[in-house]
Amino acid sequence: MLLGIVEFIILACGLITTFFPDEVDDSLDSSTPTGRFSSDLGRWPTDFSADIQPVACASHNDYWRKEPLFSALRAGCTGVEADVWLFDQDLFVGHSTQSLTPERTLRSLYLDPIFKILGSQNSISAFHPSSDIQPSGVFDTKPSQTLVLLIDFKNDGDAIWPYVSDQLQPFREKNYLTYFNGSSVIEGPITVVVTGNAPFSSVVANPHYRDMFFDAPLALMDKVAESAIPVGASVPNGNPADAVRSTIPSTRSDGDQGQGQSGSAPTNPSIYSPANSYYASVDFRASIGFPWRGHLSSQQKEKIRMQIAGAHARGLKVRYWNVPSWPKGLRFYIWRVLVREGVDYLNVDDLHSATKGNWGWGRKGPWWSGPWRFRPSTTS
Ligand SMILES: *[C@@H]1O[C@H](CO)[C@@H](O)[C@H](O)[C@H]1NC(C)=O
C-alpha cells in the first residue's frame, strides 16, 4: 500500500516534469548558486572551473540566460552561441534588432570575459614564468578542451566579417585561437565558428591562415557518405576549397540564411573539410522532421546516420539545431538517439537537464510510455 503511494508520487512528479519542463527547469535554475560566477572577474580564483566537467553541448541563444556565457560554462557546455548585428561600427548581441542594447556587445558579453578567463588560466607568475606553448582552455578539468564560440552573422555578412576578425586580434596574438596554417589545423582554447550570413568566400580567402571556420550545411552531407574520401585534420597540399573557389556563389539572397544553410555556402559537399569548417549543422525539424509515431521512423534514422557519416568522413563535427524540445520526454528521446548515432554537439536551451539529467537512458518504448522516472542506468 505504502509502496503504491510512493510509486504514484514518483509517477506524478515525472508527469509534471515531462509536461511542464520549463517551469521545473526555471526553478532549478534560480536555485543554482551564482556567487562563484560573479561578473567581477578580478575576484576569480584561477581554478574557477575546477569542479566542472566539459559536456559537448552548444548553448543555444546563450545571451538570453541570466548570465550569458557563465551559465553555459558552469553547466560545462563546450560551445556557446552569439547572434551578432553590425550597427554603428560595433557588434551587438541579440536575437532580433528589438532586443539590442548599447551595453550588450560581442566584446562585453563574450570576448572580454573569455579573454580574462584565459588570462587567469594561463597566468605568468614567479611560479610559472613563461607562457605555455599550448595555452590552457577554460576548463580546469580538461585544459586541452576547446570552447567553440559560434557567431551567427545576422545582418550584412560581408560587412560584419572584418569587425569580428578585428575583435579577435587579442586572442590571435596570445595564440588562443584554433587555426589552420595552410596544411594542418592546430586546436587552441577557443574555436571560432561563423554561421548565418557569414560569407564562405571570406572563410577561405586566405589559403595560408584561417581562424574563423564555417558552419557547413549538414543537409548536403548524406550525399557524400559513401563516396567521401576521408579527410583528417591534416590536408596535404592546400585544401579542396581552393580548387573549387570558382564554384562559390557570388550573390546571396537577403535576409537571415539560418545556420548551416547560408546562401553563400557552396552546394558541392566535397568542398568542406576541417581546413575551412568545424561544424556541419542543419535545422532538425526541416531536415529530419518530427517523430510523429513516438519514434523516429527508420527512414528518419537512416537520414541522420547518413548525414553523420558524411560529415564525419569529412572530419566535421555534427550539430543539429531546432530539435523538438517539448515535452521533455520527447526531447530526451531525440537526444538519446542523436548521441547514440554519434552527434558531436547538442544545441540546447535547457542547460540544466542537458548536462545534469540522465535523459531517461535505459527506457524502452515510445517516449510517452511510462513510467517517467529517472533510472540510474546510463547504458543502451
Ligand atoms: C602546420 O602545422 C603542422 C603541425 O604543427 C606542421 O607540421 C606544418 O609544417 C605546418 N605547416 C605550415 C605551412 O606551417
Automatic annotation (TrEMBL):
Which Gene Ontology terms cover its molecular function? phosphoric diester hydrolase activity
Q: What UniProt keywords apply to this chain's record, in alphabetical order?
A: Signal
Q: Which InterPro entries match?
A: AIM6_PI-PLC-like_dom, HAT_RTT109-like, PLC-like_Pdiesterase_TIM-brl
The domain of life for this entry's organism is: Eukaryota
Any one biological process term the GO annotation gives: lipid metabolic process
Q: Which SUPFAM superfamilies match?
A: PLC-like phosphodiesterases
Instruction: From the UniProt annotation, give the residues forming the signal peptide.
Output: 1-18
State the residue spans of region: Disordered: 235-270
Which family is annotated?
Answer: Belongs to the AIM6 family.
Q: What is this protein called?
A: Altered inheritance of mitochondria protein 6
Report the source organism: Exophiala bonariae
